[in-house]
Design goal:
Layout: H1 2-16, H2 22-44, H3 52-77, H4 82-89, H5 95-135, H6 140-177, H7 193-216, H8 221-266, H9 281-309, H10 314-320, E1 328-339, H11 342-347, H12 351-371, E2 374-380, E3 383-388, H13 397-412, E4 421-437, E5 440-446, H14 448-463, E6 467-470, H15 471-476, E7 484-485, E8 500-502, E9 522-523, E10 527-528
Parallel strand pairs: 4-6
Antiparallel strand pairs: 1-3, 1-4, 2-3, 4-5, 6-8, 7-8, 9-10
Helix pairs in contact: 1-6, 2-3, 2-6, 3-5, 4-5, 5-6, 6-7, 6-8, 7-8, 8-9, 12-13
Length: 535
């Protein structure tokens, strides 16, 4: 039955579009009229000798009052759907409008009933009670009894209309929700499940008692009506209270556990598990939640391990698929760092000492590069290749690279340090993408700008400077920096030598004769670095 109703409402919404707004009006009006007619017929059953004409007259007045009350309430409620109408009219609704429309649609029924229930009760009950009392020639106190008794079917009709209103708006809500971002500002403004149970069960049982009492108490007049209503209301409250408490605990208890579990998951506690207390839908949901938590924990472990071997900032970039598989051309600044005389050190040290020394060095180098917005592209033995301006498109990537290089030279090239490093920077166009094959890829940058940065770093061994930058990097700076020219560097593979500039105050002693440069060191990609011309 429920599935058929949902399918019908969805079909109507797709067929009518924005005109679907009238469907809830028609359905609520029809349901209210049916319940009102039944309630009046049951109350008239208490009064003997009522002619058919009077019954028809009372039903007509009641139907008219109900119709007026419902239509006025619907007219007053239309203002709550303003964002929904705006969303329908917008060809490409933005996120703010979609969130506003979703809030209006999901909370329309509650807001409408809060604002209009009292007015509908007055418009419906007052004319009905007054006319019925006069038409049946009853004493004034009988009118009070009819009014009080009428509250039971009125509450039942309100509950039915509320549930129907929410059901009829589901296709609208689903349509809007499909356009919402995942991380929108959700607020629980609807009628909570525990409150629904506390309200619906007593209303339902009281109405059932009212019907039974009316059928069993024919002809007892106003006295029988008030006794039957009191009995129905009392029995309804008494017997539904315990059921409401028990159902509330059995339904809302697991939901509360799931909400707490979701909160802990959101805070990063992937070891969270919720107890599976039942074997129904809630138990299935709890079981699925625990399986999801296990999957999230495994995924986070993979991300942690992944982030250990590549730059953590690049992990979400790779997972997002933002960069095309064929690569993309970007303008960046490349920083290449290498340790002076590391070959001689490694020849006289044990393997654990070499690894420990490099790790100690990189413990200093990596945070400095990250602090300036750079990303470690790869470790090349005792060297580091870092990129500035990718994946974040910093306009000042050259300034950031120079700032990192200066801090690296000042931090590492101190008298209390075992190593001396040279840093070369070049700015230019590179291709960024996933490089590799046979199922093994490395997200990296390639291009002449990378090779030039490596050769500029190699030139620090002959100039004795801690930092050298190319003219391209100097020209890309957006903030003033003190640089002094050095001799040009003869870069292998280039027709013209590369003009380089040094940062004053970062000079360091270096014995070129014992360096790797004397025999020619390897640039990225296995290209020999030519020694710089000392002239």
């Amino acid at each position: 039955m429920e599935r058929a109703l949902r399918a019908t409402t969805l079909w109507l919404y797709r067929r009518l579009g924005s005109d679907y707004r009238w469907i809830p009006v028609v359905v609520e009006l029809g349901a209210s009229l049916v319940i009102a007619v039944i309630a009046v017929a049951l109350m008239l059953n208490y009064f003997p000798g009522v002619s058919t004409g009077r019954v028809i007259a009372v039903l007509a007045v009641t139907s008219g009052a109900v119709a007026i009350g419902v239509l006025i309430a619907q007219w007053r409620a239309f203002r709550h759907l303003g964002p929904v109408y705006a969303w329908w009219d917008a060809r490409a609704p933005d996120t703010e409008l979609s969130v506003s429309a979703w809030d209006a649609a999901t909370n329309h029924t509650k807001r409408s009933f809060q604002a209009n229930s009292m007015w509908v009760a007055l418009i419906t009950l007052v004319p009905t009670v007054v006319f019925t009392t006069i038409e049946l020639r009853q004493h004034w106190w009988a009118g009070v009894v009819i009014a009080v008794s009428g509250l039971v079917p009125f509450a039942y009709g309100t509950a039915i209309s509320y549930a129907a209103g929410e059901l009829l708006l589901r296709p609208v809500v689903a349509d809007i929700a499909a356009k919402l971002p995942v991380a929108f500002d959700f607020q629980a403004n609807g009628l909570l499940v525990r409150k629904r149970l506390k309200l619906m069960l007593p209303i339902f049982t009281s109405f059932v008692g009212f019907v039974v009492a009316a059928l069993m108490s024919r002809g007892r007049g106003a006295t029988g009506l008030i006794e039957g209503t009191a009995a129905a209301f009392g029995v309804g409250i008494l017997f539904s209270f315990e059921l409401t408490v028990l159902m509330g605990r059995s339904v809302t208890g697991p939901i509360a556990e799931l909400r707490r579990g979701v909160g802990r998951i959101a805070s990063g506690d992937y070891a969270t598990r919720v107890p599976v207390l039942t074997s129904d839908e809630l138990g299935e949901l709890s079981h699925d939640f625990n399986q999801m938590a296990v999957g999230l924990a495994e995924r986070e472990q993979m991300r942690d391990a992944f982030g250990t071997y590549v730059d953590r900032e690049v992990v979400p970039l790779i997972l997002s698929g933002r960069y095309p598989q064929d690569g993309v051309e970007v303008n960046v600044s490349i920083l290449f760092l290498d340790v002076w005389g590391f070959t001689e050190f490694s020849e006289g040290a044990s393997a654990p000492e070499v690894v420990r020394a490099l790790n100690d060095l990189f413990e200093t180098v990596v945070p400095i590069i990250a602090a300036h917005g750079g990303h470690i592209d790869k470790f090349l033995g005792d060297g580091v290749l870092a990129v500035f301006g990718m994946p974040e498109g910093y306009a000042d990537h050259a300034d950031r690279a120079l700032g990192a290089a200066i801090e690296l030279a000042q931090t590492v090239n101190r008298d209390d340090r075992s190593f001396r490093v040279g840093v070369g920077i070049n700015t230019g166009s590179v291709v960024a993408g996933s490089i590799g094959g046979a199922g093994r890829l490395n997200f990296s940058v390639i291009g002449d700008a990378v090779n030039t940065a490596a050769r500029v770093e190699a030139a620090t061994r002959s100039t004795g400077d801690g930092v050298l930058v190319t003219a391209a990097t100097r020209d890309a700076l957006t903030r003033p920096a003190e640089l002094i020219p050095r001799d040009t560097v003869a870069a292998k593979g280039k027709r013209e030598p590369v003009t380089v500039f040094a940062v004053p105050g970062l000079e360091a002693d270096f014995d070129a004769e014992s360096s790797e440069l004397a025999s020619g060191s390897q640039a990225p990609g296995g290209v020999q670095t030519a020694p710089a011309d000392p002239r």
